[in-house]
Amino acid sequence: MAATQRKELTEFQRGEIIGAWKCDFSIRKISEILKHSKSTVHEVIAAYKEGFETLPSRSGRPPIITERDGRHLMQTLNKNRKTTIDELCENFTTSTSIEASPITIKRYLHKNNIYGRVGAKKPFVNAANKMKRLKWAKQKVKWINEWENIIWSDESKFEVFGGDGKRYVWRTPQEKYNPKCLIPTFKSGQESVMIWGCFVKNKLGPLVKLEGKITANVYVKEILEKHLLPFINNLEDKENYIFQEDNAPIHTANIAKKWKEDNNIASLPWPAQSPDLNPIENLWDELERKVRNHRPLPKNQDDLWKILQEEWLNLDEKIYKNLVDSIPRRVAAVIENKGDPTKY
């Protein structure tokens, strides 16, 4: 009868072997009775004779990716966190001449808590704007109640159809907002509706559909004049409110600046590439979720615009109040990240 392949023995199994040997059973006989390989029986007896109670640990199969190879693999991955597992495997094999399969590469990454995860979408922030964001945040770090008097505004595009837009990156759970692991935002070119909206902590403003080319003149005449000004005039203590908008050319054009000056509307200086500081971006996300859950789904731009208006008016007041209350935490996060994008 063939003996079974050796595996790590328990203390009881080793005792059986030594006990049989002390009873003058041969190694071959012990192997047949206890169904261990002769080499295993021999090693246990030899270890006992030398005073060892256990066998030395078995080395097992050497790993394909050594510690040094692993460092090289991580260096390769850090150059591009958005690479596919096949591309990573090919680059690793080419640079090291080690034949490692995608499964082996993936197993090594998982061992180091690195998995393929959906990349967070954030606009790219260059070095100069990182410093501007950091400076702005430090200037506003002591603001608390002041945020309640800000009129938050922005434009946004909502698409009629489209996939989930998910792209994956290799990262640990703690690296979600690491700049190397972010997915830059981009325009898809799909059928869509462009809107402008605004709100304050305790009140939603108008939602405006934008059509055609939006110039600075159109922005002033069709948005600021027709929609922003009436909204401000209906606010209590309207003179205490400050208008927020990003640095889009139509917002910073001379005609727009003059109109705001003529109408005594104060503007909040705004750091470039900072949607994570503007809570209306999160309000757009909430609006999009409601549109996606609406039944029936919009089939065209007209349907989409009707649903957007309906869902905008149905937004829970707690949502935009909580968003404004989050601004101090956003400011602190920018400082902590030294100007890099934050989780917001």
TrEMBL record:
GO molecular function, one term: DNA binding
SUPFAM superfamilies for this protein: Homeodomain-like (SSF46689)
Residue span, Tc1-like transposase DDE domain: 150-299
Domain of life: Eukaryota
Protein name: Tc1-like transposase DDE domain-containing protein
All copies of domain Transposase Tc1-like, residue ranges: 71-141
InterPro entries: Homeodomain-like_sf (IPR009057), RNaseH_sf (IPR036397), Tc1-like_DDE_dom (IPR038717), Transposase_5 (IPR052338), Transposase_Tc1-like (IPR002492), WH-like_DNA-bd_sf (IPR036388)
Biological processes annotated in GO: DNA integration; DNA transposition
